[in-house]
Write a structure and sequence with these properties.
The complex is a heterodimer. Chain A is an all-alpha fold. In chain A, 37% of the residues lie in helices and 0% in strands. The longest helix of chain B is centred in the middle third of the chain and has 26 residues. The chains are: A mainly alpha, B alpha+beta.
């Protein structure tokens, strides 16, 4: 029995798979911004809808971008 | 021989000559250690996402693509550490795809700079007469930029416009999961 009040969870698709990108690039930080919360945390896969492979790459890319001050570590 | 990409943030207070000095020094270090510099990209001055060393709010970014043996990395890192004007650096492995994309982008930038210089130099009447040649240059350029895979302003804007659509949806869907 589903308790989500009759709302079907929308099937999510990995945007990196759709765009056929093999390696997530840390230099494209404008794009990475879509996958962090407004506080700067990495969005979970549950919400972003990324596939496991790209989510792993994405996490590392975000961390690289943070080191180079392209993305914030945290935002108040 | 491995392919590497070094991203460097140089102090924004420095003049253009100072930047070149740092980059030339880096190239010299690479060549001295049996490496070859392939492409240098100037990312220009950017705002940093956070303050570094309690004084830098912006920095001048450079990307240097080079190949060499793995033993070259400690030498390069040493060079970055002893150079005070380097705010931050990172060296990562890349692949041929990235290398080619960077080379293409550099070529595109050089062509754009040349074109701008030529347009500036040539009087306007002459440019009008040469309309055909100018047109070919213009059409060649937009075709080259999306292929590079580098952050292009146009692409970024597209992504931004998509964002508001998906954001509320995502927030809503989070609720049932939390219950």
């Amino acid at each position: 029995m589903r308790r989500d009040r009759g709302r079907k969870p929308k099937k999510k698709i990995c945007s990196y798979c759709v765009e056929k990108i093999d390696n997530v690039d840390y230099k494209q930080y404008e794009k990475l911004k879509r996958f962090v919360t407004e506080r700067g945390k990495v969005l979970p896969r549950r919400i972003s809808g990324n596939c496991a492979k790209h989510q792993r790459q994405l996490t590392r890319a975000i961390k690289k971008a943070r080191i180079m001050a392209l993305l914030p570590f945290s935002m108040e | 021989m491995e392919l590497y990409e070094a991203m460097v943030i140089i102090s924004p207070e420095l003049e253009k000559d100072g930047h070149e000095e740092v980059i030339n020094g880096l190239s010299a270090t690479i060549t001295k250690n049996e490496g070859t510099v392939s492409t240098i990209l100037d990312w220009r001055k950017r705002r940093l996402a956070y303050e570094i060393d309690k004084k830098y709010l912006e920095g001048h970014y450079y990307l240097v693509y080079f190949s060499g043996k793995g033993t070259i990395i400690p030498e390069i890192e040493h060079y970055f550490r002893v150079t005070d004007t380097v705010v931050r650096y990172m060296v990562v492995r890349t692949d041929e795809q990235e290398f080619e994309a960077a080379a293409k982008k550099a070529a595109g930038e050089a062509a754009a700079a040349e074109k701008a210089a030529a347009e500036e130099a040539a009087p306007k009447e002459e440019a009008a007469g040469d309309a055909a040649s100018v047109e070919t240059v213009e059409t060649a350029e937009p075709a080259a930029t999306p292929e590079t895979g580098e952050p292009v302003e146009g692409q970024d804007q597209e992504e931004k416009s998509k964002e508001p659509e998906s954001a509320p949806e995502q927030a809503e869907e989070e609720k049932p999961a939390g219950e």
